[in-house]
């Protein structure tokens, strides 16, 4: 198998610092102290691919879009393109910083993967068209890859290693390791939707996913579904959870209330205007933090802490999609309470977590109780 590997080095950087995305916000994310997320996600996928399919040939682009990481995983890749060129690299030939990458750079890489190949510097021979474009990023990167494939007239498949904040598209594997397993074992493809949203509207609490492309994607169980809006009322659920929270007012218990409409209904029942896609913190009858970043949430925690979250409709992710502020450091200091409407749970086979910490993911796996009504609960498995 011949894989073309490309990484968006800034994907997901805006999540933990409260930006809800990174499109057009890289500099601000860096100013807020954001750390790159994509390289670690890429390394996890590449390490698993090296184990599952060590004979895979890999084409890459020059750094910072993945070459060093591919070599670090033990592959001997062929560099088919330098998307920046000598002018962008300057006289010293140093790679541009991650913040300098753009959608056009991604497009140049994908076009090179589709073409018959260019002789790579330091390598003999040429590469042929790739069998799969394996990319690391979020919905914006997925859109860029799909658009470049279409513009090049290719119906070759693409598969995403999830590293963005939102990840609405159904072209992503559930985790980096799953992406590698799918890449190593798939035998057929199907057409799937590439979705994205307006991040500025998203930051204002308006979520309007738009279809950006339809792409060929490997068929496997370890692919996520597109996010869908769950139907059904959550009023009684919100009332029951809010009553439970009020009963603990005065005890010093800190409640970390995740994003989304279901937990938003609980916030409204408590009597405050929720930040629709942000994380709010409640303690002893009052809001102590609105729309917090990872560090702000950590600073707000006390001795006893509870996270209240709802799985993403259509996907079942409790952590890892839409709530990166709830980092492993935050999750490890809190008890977990999962809430969901019955309709939402009817749409998912299992719950999922993808926290960036495989050990924590393993600790969270297993059967959990999910609150579905004022008093009712349902057992669901975190796979």
Automatic annotation (TrEMBL):
It holds the Pfam family NAD_kinase. Coiled coil: none annotated. GO terms for molecular function: kinase activity. Residues 83-104 are annotated as: Disordered. Keywords: Kinase, Transferase. InterPro entries: AcoX-like (IPR039065), ATP-NAD_kinase_N (IPR017438), NAD/diacylglycerol_kinase_sf (IPR016064), NADK (IPR002504), Put_ATP-NAD_kin (IPR011386). It comes from the Archaea. This is ATP-NAD kinase family protein. It comes from Halorubrum yunnanense.
